[in-house]
Every structure is written in structure tokens, then in C-alpha cells.
Amino acid sequence: MYEKILIIKPSSYGDVIHALPFLQVLKNKYPKAEIHWVIAGSLKSILQGHPMIDRLWVIEKDNWKNPLKIADTIRELRSLRTKLRAESFSLVVDLQGLLRSGLIAQMSGCKNVIGFKEAREGSRFFYTQLIEGGRDVHAVDRYLKVAEFLGCDTSVVSFPLNLHIEPPNVIDELPLDFVVMAPGARWETKRWPPSYFGRLAALLPIPTVIIGSKDDMEAADEVVRLSEGKAISLAGKTGLSDIPWIISKAKFMVSNDTGPMHVAAALGVWVYAIFGPTEPLRTGPYGKNNTIIRLSLRCMPCFKKKCYRIECMRDLSFHTVYEIIREHESFRT
Q: Are 59 and 37 in contact (CB under 8 A)?
């Protein structure tokens, strides 16, 4: 029986969403266990106040590689080590599988640390138990292999999203019926051109709502400009905790391979997911409520963050995407 469990999964947005079914089955198996979670500061609002999590450990991982902030990082790591060891965890699960997450597991002082055999950057040497997750496996299913090892029942997969009951402050800007689009992505190579999103929005019979961070505002503005008055932008106007509520009200979603895409899949909102350099089998929307839209090129998937042409995205026309959406039964009126 595990009395206190630490889950290490600091990032990214979509990966944290993918780990929620693991949290659910773990709580089902050990309902009295105290569950802690290590999360990146930029993503803490996703899990803040989650009823299944007793404590969030917030780390500023984005500063750890900044040489100008090395003094702050050293102080943070020393404090983190002291506080983690004081908790006396009976189990630590590293779902991230990188050097920094392996170090956090080691700093906890726990004698029972589980991680993946395929973990990178030498992190596997910090584990006491190695689980073979597999490489050509969806992230959700990889995490559930750890749950199976712990004796959890994984026959039912659910996503316990931390949904806000109260609507966001932008509710007055939302149309009655709308499509939601997410034209952003962390990698440049995963971004379908904003102009294509805009022209697609112009073709759709109902309005489009654009979501994204402040970094996506320029792309969102281009979508609005080319939508012929049929799109509005909420990029930069909402927090991460508002995104699930907005997506839940949409008729369907059109998205790059990015975090909000996984939120839509978790909510059961149909998502048209545009893929280029990445592999949907591993990181696509989980479940059956989705349509993967991609070209078939010999270089795919390349997993490159930089590409001089990005033909896998640029050669996928907005007309092609529109026809796929139009022909889908859920879109017919």
C-alpha cells in the first residue's frame, strides 16, 4: 500500500493532459493515498485545485538552462531537495523521462522510483524499477503501462480535467455556435500557415473563435483578417484554465499538434488535427472523436523542429481541409 505518491510530469501542456488517465486509475487503486505532482510554473493552472492532487510542486524549469539565473536555480534545487526528502514518499513515478525529472526523483530520497526503460538523457539510472513503455505507442497508453504495473485497472480510460464551473470573463465575446481553432504550436514546423486557417474560417458556415497564448496573437490576427469577418480572436485574453471551458462549448475544433488539441479530445469534442513532422500514433488526439489530416510524404514523420521548406504543412491546402470537414457527418446541417 502506497501512502504518499509523487508524480513527476512537469510539461508540456499536452503531455500533462495525457497523464490524467494515469492519475485517475492510480486514485481508483489507492483512494487513501496522498498524491503530489511536480509541474512547471507556466502550466500550474492546469492542475491547481485539482481534487485528486493533494499538493503541487511548482518548478521554474524554464530558468534551469539560463546561465544568468544559475544562482536562483541552485537555490531552488537545494530547497526542493530538502522539502521533497521531508515528505518521505513511498512511491515516485517519473513520467517525463528526462535528466531533470530523473534528478528530481533522486532528490526525493525515495527507495521506490519507477520510470521508463526508454527514458532519455540518462534519467533511467535514477530509477529502481524500469517499465517498457514502447516508442510507437500513444503517450496515454505508455503511462497506463506504469499503472498496470502498479496493479491499477486500466480498462476504462477517462480524463479528469480540472474544469472551471464559472465561465471565463470572455463569455460575452463568444457566439452562440462556433468552431474553435488553435493556429499555434511550440515548433515552427508544426504550424499550418495562419493564412490557411483564416481562409478556412471564411468558408465555414458558423463563426470561428481563435484561442492561444500571447505568443499566438500575431498568427490569430492574421486568421481574423482573412476570415471575411467570420472569426474573433481570444489569443492572449484567457489563461490555460479557461481553455477547456471554451473548447467544451465548440461544435468542433481545427488544430495543429498542440496542447488544446488534447483538451478537445479529452472533452469528447470532435477535433480535426493537422499533422506534419510528428506522429499521430504517438502524440495525436486520444480516442475516436478525431480526424487526422496530413499529407503522405516520404520524409514524414521527421520530428524536426526546423525545416527550410515545411512542405508537409504548406502543401496541405485549406480547400483540402475544408472538404474533409464538410464531408464529415458531424458537420452536416
A: no
Q: What is the largest CA-CA distance in the chain?
A: 60
β-strands 271-274, 290-293: how paired?
parallel
* pTM of this structure: 0.90
Round to whole Å and give the CA distance between 161 and 258. Answer: 17
> Cell digits for 205?
458556415
Q: What is the C-alpha separation between 35 and 193, in angstroms, rounded? A: 41
Cα distance between residue 42 and residue 186, in whole Å: 14
User: Quick one: CA dihedral 302, 285, 223, 245, positive or negative?
Assistant: negative
* pLDDT tens-place string over residues 296-320: 998 999 999 999 889 999 999 999 9
pLDDT, tens digit (0-9, with 9 covering 90-100), for 176-189:
899 999 999 999 99
